Amino acid sequence: MTCPARLNRLRTALQESGVDGLLVTGATNRRYLSGFTGSSGYLLIDSRGGQWLATDFRYWEQARLEAPNFELLRLATKPLATLAQHCREREWKSLGFEAAHCTYEFVERLKAEAFPPLQPTSGFVEGLRIQKDEVEIELIRESAALVDRVWEEVLTIIRPGLTERELALAIEFRLRSAGASGLSFPTIVASGPRGALAHAEPTERQLVAGEMVTVDMGAVWQGYCSDLTRTVAIGRAGKDCRQVWDIVREAQQAALQGMQPGMTCREADALARDVISKAGYGDLFGHGLGHGVGLDVHEEPRLGPGTDPDLVLQEGMVVTVEPGIYRPGWGGVRLEDLVVVREDGVEVLSNALKSFNL
Q1: Percent of the residues in the chain that have a pLDDT greater than 70, as a whole number
Q2: What pLDDT, in 10s, does the model give residues 69-82?
Q3: What is the rounded distance in angstroms from the CA atom of residue 79 to the CA atom of residue 82?
C-alpha cells in the first residue's frame, strides 16, 4: 500500500471523528505515513486533502527525497508558531494531536501558540498500522530471514565459559554484519537460573554445561523489525529441562496450528496457555502469548488474557507467538516465532532451527 492510500484511510477516520486536521508527532507514525526517516519533524494532515511535512534545515533535502507526496514546511527559530500559523490559514475548527506521543508540557506550548482548538486523539495511525500490506510483510519476512541466518551462526559459538555479554555482543556484530541497520531491541541472553527473568539483561555470568540459555534477538531491516527467541541446552541438561522445553514447544505448536482470523486475541492466547496450565505450570507463564511487530518491535495487537475481549485477529496482522515457562531459582524456557495471519490460519515467518540441544 502506498503512502497516499494510507493517507486516504486516515482522512476517512478523521472525517468520521470530526477532526479537521491532525498533528502527527510520533516518529514511527510519521515514517509510516510519509516515508520520512529523519529524527525531527511534524506532519500536518488535512481531513479534506493536503499534507505537510515540517522540518528544519538539517533534514530539508532528506525530506524532499523521502516524502515526495508531502508539501514541505521549513521550520526555523519559532517552529510551533510556524505550525500554528499554517493551521490558522487552513481555517481548521479543530486540531487533533496524538495524546500518546505528546507530553503535557508540549501540549501547553501548543496552547500558548494559538493553535486551533486542540483535541486529543488515540490510535488513528496505529489503527492503520495494525494490519500490514504485502510490501510490509515482505520486509518483515526479510528481517526474519536475516535473524534466522544469524541464529545458525550463533549455534556454532555457544559454549561453556562464554559470558552472556560476550554472546550478546557476538550476536549484535553478526546481525549488523548481515545487513541489519540496528537491533529491534537490546539482545537478551539469560543462562541457567537467570532464564527465569523474561527480559534479562546480559551479564558477566558464564555459560555452564548442563544448563540452558535463552536468546531473544531481532533485527531492523529497511525500517521493519523481527523478533526471535530460542532456548537451547548447553551440553547434556537434566530431564526436567527437557520436560519444560517440550511443554513450551507443545504450547507453541498448539497456537501456531490453531490461530485463525476472526478469533479473539484472548482465544489465541488460550491455545498455548491451556497446554501450559494443564501441565501444571500455569502460574509460571506470566506474560501474553505475543504482540504485533512492524516498524516498532512492540505494537498492536497484544495477545493475552487481559486483552480487549473484542479485539480479533485479522488477515495481515504480524504477531509473535512466544509462550514461556519461568521458574525462579531454576531457569526458564521461551520459544518465539513471527507469524502473519492469513485467510486459513497463520504463515510462519521464522524458520530458525528449533532444537533442545545445540
Answers
A1: 99
A2: 999 999 999 999 99
A3: 5
The answer to whether the CB of 175 falls within 8 A of the CB of 225 is: no
- The edge-to-edge listing of strands for the beta sheet with 188-191 is 188-191, 212-217, 228-233
Structural domain contains residue 142: yes
**Average pLDDT of span 330-343:** 98
Domain boundary at 94, 129, 164, which? 129
CA atoms of 228 and 146, how far apart (whole Å)? 11
Q: What DSSP string runs through 286-319?
A: -S-SEEE-SSSSSEEEEESTTS-TT-B--TT-EE
C-alpha distance from residue 88 to each of 110, 182, 269 (Å): 13, 40, 48
pLDDT tens for each residue of 238-293: 999 999 999 999 999 999 999 999 999 999 999 999 999 999 999 999 999 999 99
Half-sphere exposure of 267 (CA within 13 A, CB side): 12
* Cα separation, 21 vs 266, whole angstroms: 35
Question: What is the distance between the alpha carbons of residues 343 and 319, in angstroms, rounded to a whole number?
Answer: 15
> Coil, strand, or helix at residue 263?
coil
Which of the 8 DSSP states describes residue 205?
P
Amino acid letter for position 259: M
DSSP SS3 for 183: strand
Domain boundary among 88, 103, 129: 129
Instruction: Give dist(CA 260, CA 350) in Å, integer.
Output: 18
**Pair 149, 169 in one domain:** yes
Note whether 97 and 121 are within 8 A (CB): yes
Q: Do residues 191 and 213 touch, judged by C-beta distance below 8 A? A: yes
CA neighbor of 231 nearest in space, from 303, 151, 149: 151
The H-assigned helical ranges of 226-296 are 239-258, 265-278
Contact between 276 and 251 under an 8 Å Cβ cutoff? The reply is yes
Q: Which domain holds residue 251?
A: 134-348
Please identify which residue in the block is written with the cell numbers 498533528. 23
